[in-house]
Amino acid sequence: MSGIAPILEARRLSKRFGGFLANDAIDLSVEAGEIRGIIGPNGAGKSTLVNLITGVHQPSAGDVLLAGESLVGRKPHEIARKGLVRSFQVSRVFGNLSVIENLLASHLADARMRETHGQGFAKATRLLELTGLIRLADAPAKTLSGGQRVLLQAAAGFMMPSLTCYLLDEPFAGVNPVIKDQLIALIEEESRARGVTFVIVSHEMAVMRRLCRKITVLIEGRVVVEGSLDDVAARADVVAAYLGKSLV
Amino acid sequence: MKYTSRVAAFAMLLLASLVTPPVQAQEPVTIGLVVPLSPPGDPTAGQLIRRGAELALDYYNGKGGVLGGRKLQLSVQDSQGRPEGGVAAYRRVVGEDKAVAVTGFFHSSVNIAANEVAKSIGVPTIGTQTSAADITAKHYEIAFRTHLIDPLRVAAWLEFMQKKGFKRVSMLAETSDYGIGLVTETDRQIKEKKLPIELQSLTFDRTSTDLTPQLLQVKAFRPDLLVNVGVGAPMDLMIEQAATLAITPQVPMLVSYDAPIRPQFWQLHPNTGDKLYFIAYYSPKQTLSEIGTWFTKAYEEKYKESPVYSSLNGFGDVAIIAQAVEQAKGADPKAIIQTLETGKFAFWSSGEVTFPKADGVFWHNFSPPVLILQFQKPGQDWKEAEVMFESGK
Amino acid sequence: MFSFELFTQALLAGIVIGVIYALMALGITFIYSIVKMINWAMGEFYMLGSYAQYLIVAYWLGPDLWYIAAILSAATVFFAGWLIEPILIKPMFTGGIERRDDYATVVTIALLLLLRNLATAISGPYQRTPGTNLPGVMLGPLPESGARFAAFLAALAAIALFTLLLKRTWLGLALRATSQSRVGAQTSGVDVLSLDKLAFGIGVGLAGLAGALLAPVFMVYPTNGVVTTTKGFEIIVIGGLGSVPGALVAGVALGIAESLGATFIASAYQNAYGFVLLLLVLALRPSGLFGERLRQA
């Protein structure tokens, strides 16, 4: 272990849906400032893991810690306010709110931040510039394209004043290359400038190779291996899980 | 022998049952009370009738009950002023609580619907404050009534209009059996008697709270008199809204029943109730019967206000049933019907009540006298309201 | 009996009552959009508001301070809703209840019966009125009672204030976000469950305000809220569930349809014209005038 304490930790985390064990005693340790990738075939339990960490589901067993503090039993909004933010596979932008209001909505969560309306506005404007959505700032979010919504949703997470750790669930799925690049740039910028920790669930191996030095592979609800993408892709069990197709 | 001993035991039992007084002798006699306690019915009327009925119980039970010691009890059910609610209520008091007669009816449509069921079940009804002709005009064996009937009410106000010289009359009536019945009857009598009255009749749904559209038409008609045929809240709303539209007081209003004598009337209409005409069935200047006098005293003691017609009639009808049970020497509904048809009964008003098999709407019907009163100043006690008209005088 | 004067009078009367209807409907549509439930007891909160107004005016402030009384009454009803929500409504989301719509229906109908019977038991079935000293006004050719005109103006002001709250405040933003996506709002850090409590309070408070304003016009009695519920539901179906401008437009449309229909077609069917309008809207635009065809993700 390196000397740095993990910012996000899962200990023997399990979730059972009826007879199906979706997550089986998962151990995960993410260091502050890291960009961690999580991959695995469909049905491996990736989204369940994200839901357990962010309080959408309660675990059947095990614990989740953010900076050493347990999150089990906390409500989703409390977890978000503690700085652990997530995005959804299916975008959850607020269609009838304007683009900038979508960003401001995340800024207002903490009542103390409401005093700093100007700061929130400035931050939202900067994010819109970074994502190229600035000219659409006052348009209703429902008029955005699918890719633009993904960008907006990802950007909304950065508005959270206390953001320390950001879980992105399939952020690149169905997004065109231009927006994909904007999103990657955004992640790199926030990682570098604010030291935000990222956990990214994705199938996009090229992107994962570029962003993540360490990848965790989930198969049938269990962590089978951790390491660089090239290392894990070389493993026979990983290749087999992807139906014999080469990962890279 | 086993066999004979069993027969002997049975015979003994039979004998014993003949000599010992029937166990049910102390069982109470139940009287059904079907009243509106929630809208669209008029819950105020329901409560007032119930008050009267309960005091009748106090009166007879205080004297030791009926039939040598059986207590009277009430089975009260809410009709909600709806025919189907009334039918259900009738079935419940008769079926579950074994009522020997059912009274308390306030809404004509409820009484009519209940009578259709009562006809086959055979437990009699007494209409307490229902005025539609059909209640008694159908000549059902089970149908009785102690309330002013439509033709007499209409005859009274037409006579009153004649006396006052009202030539253009607007009638604003709710779409109930009561409202429609009165509009139809008024129209019929005007034609039959060839009276020089031009009648504008308008109707409204009982659940309406805003009568502005109807009253605008009344205003455009420029009548000499506006007859308010609403019951409960719509009646009160019409008084207020007619004043708002500046119809009253220039055009006087006649309220079709005695609602203005209720204690809350002036609280509701501090500025709009003055000079109002209203039909009444009772004035404190009338001489009351012995039980009527007992009742007014008991009522004033219990409720700290004077009784009104609804309570008086609720009392009177339960008193009639109690007397009929006593006179019939039993609680069998058939015998009670028989007794009601032939007997004479004390009521709250002076004189005796009978239910002869008379013609038409007068079948099984007892009509108290009808009065038209008028307030002379705002806040006036109804007992001091001027008697402007009295039927039969 | 058509005359231009009568037409103008009926039209004006329809607009006035329509805006008042809109205020009655606003709370239903607002609660639905946040808490995702239909509150069948809405009329009973209108009733509570009218009783509060009656008590405050008759026993404390007097009719001249009706506007202060109305604010206090609305606040009282808000507070009642705020207290009731965690007990009755919150279990819908936290109690592992599977059929939420059924649960909400049963619970609010039970609440309706409880409040109605409680009012009858405490105050008796009598009609009451707080009374009013407001002089009548002339709206063109239409004489209008001062209290009703005041209720009309106050309803307009309340709807405007409510719109401002939604559009211009942090709370409004949180409410609008929650109405779009509860989960999305939660991940933005919005405490949706306490927002439910607030939204339920505000929603029933709006009905309570309507009850307070209309207490001298339509009187105070245990079942005076029935109209609120029936008109309210007609309006939200016509205007579109969850839409504030929809409630205003549909309220006025309903008021005008009833007034003109009752004046020029047949007065007995006053309450039916709204349903005709409702069926028409449902046939042409099933999601209502301002409703969204599909919920946006």
Brief digest:
Chain B has helices spanning 2-19, 43-62, 83-96, 108-121, 134-137, 150-164, 177-192, 212-221, 233-244, 265-268, 290-303, 309-328, 333-342, and strands at residues 29-35, 72-78, 102-105, 125-127, 143-145, 168-174, 198-204, 225-229, 253-255, 277-280, 345-346, 352-353, 371-374, 386-390. Chain B has 393 residues and is α/β, with parallel strands linked by helices.
Structure description:
The complex is a heterotrimer of chains A (248), B (393) and C (297). Chain A is an alpha/beta fold. Helix content of chain A is 35%, strand content 25%. Chain A has helices spanning 46-53, 76-81, 99-107, 117-131, 146-158, 177-194, 205-211, 229-233, 236-241, and strands spanning 6-17, 20-31, 35-39, 61-66, 69-70, 84-86, 165-169, 197-201, 214-219, 222-227. In chain A, α3 runs parallel beside α5, α4 (117-131) packs antiparallel against α5 (146-158) and α5 (146-158) packs parallel to α6. The longest helix of chain A is centred in the last third of the chain and has 18 residues, at 177-194. Chain B is built from 13 helices and 14 strands. Chain B is globular and about 90 Å long. Residues 18-24 of chain B have low confidence and may be disordered. Chain C has a domain at 26-225. Chain C is built from twelve helices and two strands. The N and C termini of chain C lie far apart (53 Å). Chain C is mainly α and 297 residues long. In chain C, β1 (137-139) and β2 (142-144) form a beta hairpin. Chain C is globular. Classes of the chains: A alpha/beta (248), B alpha/beta (393), C mainly alpha (297).
Question: What are the SSEs and their pairings?
Answer:
The complex is a heterotrimer of chains A (248), B (393) and C (297).
Chain A: E1 6-17, E2 20-31, E3 35-39, H1 46-53, E4 61-66, E5 69-70, H2 76-81, E6 84-86, H3 99-107, H4 117-131, H5 146-158, E7 165-169, H6 177-194, E8 197-201, H7 205-211, E9 214-219, E10 222-227, H8 229-233, H9 236-241
Parallel strand pairs in A: 3-8, 3-9, 6-7, 7-8
Antiparallel strand pairs in A: 1-2, 1-4, 4-5, 9-10
Chain B: H1 2-19, E1 29-35, H2 43-62, E2 72-78, H3 83-96, E3 102-105, H4 108-121, E4 125-127, H5 134-137, E5 143-145, H6 150-164, E6 168-174, H7 177-192, E7 198-204, H8 212-221, E8 225-229, H9 233-244, E9 253-255, H10 265-268, E10 277-280, H11 290-303, H12 309-328, H13 333-342, E11 345-346, E12 352-353, E13 371-374, E14 386-390
Parallel strand pairs in B: 1-2, 1-3, 3-4, 4-5, 6-7, 6-8, 8-9, 9-10
Antiparallel strand pairs in B: 10-13, 11-12, 13-14
Helix pairs in contact in B: 2-12, 3-4, 6-7, 12-13
Chain C: H1 4-35, H2 42-61, H3 66-88, H4 91-94, H5 100-123, E1 137-139, E2 142-144, H6 146-168, H7 170-180, H8 182-187, H9 192-218, H10 226-239, H11 244-264, H12 272-284
Antiparallel strand pairs in C: 1-2
Helix pairs in contact in C: 1-6, 1-9, 1-10, 1-11, 2-3, 2-5, 2-9, 2-10, 3-9, 6-7, 6-9, 10-11, 10-12, 11-12
